Amino acid sequence: MTTPIRLKTTRTLLGIVAAISAVTSTGCIGLTQGPNLGIFAIPIPVSPFYQQKAEDDNRWLERYERVPILGPTTAGNEPVALDPPTDDEVMRAFEKANPVGGGIPLLFERQRNDVRIIKEKIADYIDPPRFYPLIGPAQLHHAHYKCTIYYSQRDIVGYPVPHSLDDEEAVETIYIDHNHFHMVGDVEPYQTPTL
Fold first, then answer.
1. According to the lineage, what is the superkingdom (predicted)?
2. Residue among 82, 188, 84 nearest 141 (CA)
């Protein structure tokens, strides 16, 4: 005859064995064949903010932070700067200086509408030739732009008293530099020396 304590202990042990076998049979946690990462095999949710930030940083680096190296300037012609900054570049520089942010819904939100951008070239000059490491003899061509951004801004405040603040004639000025190099002298492509 079995005692109730022994029967209760047996049922508890069978329950523990059943739970362990159920957890380890999923293949994600516990006993698996082959290499096991343990607790690091469980996926951890990551906010999409970090992925978007990495993509934006890469796009900014790829499009706007590299300095191109152009061929030599031709004799008799005044070298002209590259294209003026794009609207995307101006707005990204503006957002870096004055971020809108996501706001807090129903508490505070900021909107910018009716954006107009005016770009003016304020300087375009070339430095005298000099030797740059990893480039060789080159001239640095500077182009400075003044970008004026006209927009209307609306701040929506939801607490403690819901109201909105409108600024119909908001103006910001952003200065953007576009620099690039011009090679100097007889530029020949690099050739591997023959032995």
1. Bacteria
2. 82
Q: What are phi and psi of 74, to 5 degrees?
A: -90, 150
pTM over 0.90: no
Residue 34, SS3?
A: coil
Q: Is 75 helix (H, G, I), strand (E, B) or coil?
A: coil
Tokens matching residue 30: 């516990």
pLDDT of 1 over the 90 cut: no
Nearest to 159 by CA among 100, 125, 108, 194: 108
**Alpha helical stretches, state H, the chain:** 4-24, 48-64, 87-97
Domain definitions of the chain by residue range: 47-73+86-186
Cα distances (Å, whole numbers) of residue 150 to 46, 89, 91, 116, 147: 37, 16, 11, 5, 10
CA 170 to chain CA centroid, Å, is: 26
Matching residue, tokens 């530099």: 177
> What burial letters (b/e) apply to 77-111, b meaning 16+ CB within 10 Å?
eeeebeeebeeebbbbbbeeeeeeeeeeeeeebbe
For 67-92, the pLDDT digits (tens) are 788 888 777 777 778 789 999 999 98
